[in-house]
Write a structure and sequence with these properties.
Strand order of the largest sheet: 6-9-10-4-11-12
Shape: elongated
Main location: membrane
Number of domains: 2
Order of helices and strands: HHHHHHHHEEEEHEEEHHHEHEHEEE
Pfam family, one: ABC_tran
GO molecular function, one term: ATP binding
Function: May be involved in multidrug export. Transmembrane domains (TMD) form a pore in the cell membrane and the ATP-binding domain (NBD) is responsible for energy generation.
Keywords: ATP-binding, Membrane, Nucleotide-binding, Transmembrane, Transmembrane helix
Structural class: alpha/beta
CATH architecture of the largest domain: Up-down Bundle
CATH class of the largest domain: Mainly Alpha
Radius of gyration: 35 Å
Number of helices: 14
Distance between the termini: 68 Å
Amino acid sequence: MKINIPVRQLALYVLICLGAVSAFILFGHNISEVLSDIVIGGNAPRTADVVWMAVFFVLSALLTFLYRIVSRRTANARIERLGQKVLGKIDDSTMKYSESMMNAVFVHLEKYRPFEKVFIPTITQTMVRLCAIIIAMFFIHRAAAFIMLFTAPFVPLYYVLVGLRTADESKDRATQFDALGTLFLNLIRGKNTVRNTQSGQTVADRLKAFNERYVKDTMAILKYAFQSTLMLEFITILGIGLIALEVGLEIIIFESITFYAAFFTLLLAPEFYNALKVLGIEFHNGKLAQGHLEVIAEWLEKESPETDYRLIGTGDDAVELKNISIGHGDTNFLAQTDMRVPSTGFTAITGPSGIGKTTLLRTILGLHRPAEGEVCVGSDDIGYISDQVYFSDTTIYDYVSEGNYEEAEVSAILDELGMAKSINNLDEGIHTRIVNHSIPLSGGEIVRLKMARVLIRRPGIILMDEPTEFLDAKTEQLVMEHLEKLKQDAAVIAVVHRRQLLKIADRHYTLSGGRIVPQEGGY
């Protein structure tokens, strides 16, 4: 199994582990000397041996503790960097992969964490411990060393065979988990459709089938783990038993070994086989975690643009589209067309539904990469009022202010948009909580709340998607008056369906036949 860590980090791990196991072996040497003096010599132990025994025991414990701290901090830092790579994949194409991204960050990344935090440090520590003990055993009792060398390969060999199968099974489970999570999230999003079409039972049956398959396959992996642990215990007991038998024969029948060597051997033998057992268990766990890493790697390998297709702060115009072509999949909305929007004024964009108006706004904003062409924007200070919105668990004040404006400023912008009365009628006013995407306002008021969040910032470029949707005539007139003032100092680009807004438009473009066509006379 490949352990992909920097050489300097591996060298640090090995150095600390070597110090810890060396201190433990020296502790074993001193305690063997002390017991030999007591049991064989019938004498009191020498003070120096007792002191050194205590020193080496404490040193071994301290170095082991230090290793745990260093390895955890290093692992957390590596996981954080991997997480940043995953988050760095969020781009204009990420929306359709949102469930995979969430699973990569919140599920597979956490499932992989034990590989960095436990597996790599444990494997390094175990290998150093095994090598140090086997070398020491050749100086203490050569026959026991040969028994260790003969029995040791059975553990890693068995676990390599089991672990390879486990990795494949684990990757399959990770893929199934993605499918189950994606299905669940999509069903939550489409709950109204499920309810309106009376498809509840069908949905429940499908979720049940996914869940039963996932549980069944997960239990198969647990079965492998149980069988592997049982076999590992058998090999460990057999190896320790053989060494104990050999030492017993030599000390009792052949009288060819000293008490010191016998005790030292029986002290190190369990440490050797326990280290082997840990190696086997961690190999199994490591292959499980590696399955999740492969899923993350596959997600990271999805093609994504390395550079922003937009140029910021170039030219005098707020927005300039040069030879732009945009679309979704095989559907092309615009083909090699141009558009310029001055730094102030109201620009209206119209066209039939589904012709690409919202996609054009997302392209300007940087959320949709064009097939070709270039987008130049005068500033990255852009406000976007979408026809969709997600309210996290927050308050109205926090949603509008984003932590950057005082209550008086928030109240003032809400008052300008004619929302003061509605907000003040709520029990907690602007501090009313928005829980589970539920907000006690009408559709028109939610539209104005979205506008307030952007307008309070007074950005130089404002993009709007259906800004007067759900508004009654009176409120629409109020918003139009506000936009007429706003367009004096900012470039407002709005996708509109309601003809009333065209009255304040300084420029009017229609999407038609893959082109952005200017309309004469504004409207």
